[in-house]
Amino acid sequence: QKEVEQNSGPLSVPEGAIASLNCTYSDRVSQSFFWYRQYSGKSPELIMSIYSNGDKEDGRFTAQLNKASQYVSLLIRDSQPSDSATYLCAVMDGANSKLTFGKGITLSVRP
Amino acid sequence: NAGVTQTPKFRILKIGQSMTLQCAQDMNHNYMYWYRQDPGMGLKLIYYSVGAGITDKGEVPNGYNVSRSTTEDFPLRLELAAPSQTSVYFCASSYSGQGDSPLHFGNGTRLTVT
Questions:
Q1: Strand partners, B23
Q2: B89 touches chain A (CB under 8 A)
Q3: How many CB atoms lie under 10 A from the CB of residue B24?
Q4: Is residue A95 over pLDDT 80?
Q5: Given an 8 Å threshold on Cβ–Cβ distance, is B43 in contact with A49?
Q6: Per-residue pLDDT tens digits for B26-58
Q7: Residue A60, SS3?
């Protein structure tokens, strides 16, 4: 059973702070890694994807991948109240086209 | 510019009833997926399809059936509804099913079985 683990939440940060969201996965052959944001009552939307070790930056978001440690993280700089949502980590292996999702972590940004 | 359309948005079923959740996409995507999301949980894959006429089980297929007669449509059938099937159901599609082809989600169907 492939597992994707996200550290327990919820996470609360003040506006302007850096929010750090972490995720570990069990399947070593995983190839593609994603972060989805889900607002309450809405469907998930893709915010970041990362495929190789290192950092990938997109605006205020940075995804970090360490395949040796089976670890992927998402940093949100200058957090805004509009970033308040549940963030889902998802992992795809190379053998099929199925995504395995973590349980998600709920982020609250305090004004 | 509809994307992935799911109907209905909400439904209440009695135990033992059956229903079909509809999903249609207009992006000519080959891959389509059905997920369920229980409160405080991530998404669990129910069934998926890599093209018309081809379907396969996901992580939690029991109690559900699917068909894919066209590229556009991927309905999910619940037979003999049970309270354990109370959940939010999301349909999604992608072009290639590979990592560089993101999932596009529908708005979800909130199902309650009582």
A1: B6
A2: no
A3: 19
A4: no
A5: no
A6: 999 999 999 999 988 889 999 999 999 999 999
A7: coil
CA angle (A61 as vertex; A15, A71 as ends), nearest 5: 110
Among candidate residues B88, B72, B4, B83, the one with its CA nearest the CA of residue A38 = B88
Report yes or no: B2 and B26 within 8 Å, Cβ to Cβ. Answer: yes
- Whether residue B108 and residue A88 make contact (CB cut-off 8 A), yes or no, is no
Residue B44 contacts A, CB cutoff 8 Å = yes
Yes or no: say if A102 and A90 are a contact pair by the CB < 8 Å rule: yes
Q: Determine the Cα–Cα distance for residues A71 and B41; give it in Å rounded to an integer.
A: 20
CA distance, residue A27 to nearest chain B CA (Å): 15
Closest CA to A35 of A80, A79, A101, A98: A101
Residue A93's pLDDT is what? 74
Q: How near does any CA of chain B get to the CA of A4, in Å?
A: 10
pLDDT band at B7 (very low <50, low <70, confident <90, very high): very high
For residue B43, the chain A residue with the least C-alpha distance is: A101
Give one word for B40, left, alpha or beta, with left for phi > 0 and alpha for psi -120 to 50.
Answer: left
Query: For residue B35, which residues of chain A lie inside 8 Å, CB to CB?
Result: 101
B40 touches chain A (CB under 8 A): yes
Nearest to A49 among B45, B99, B108 (CB): B99
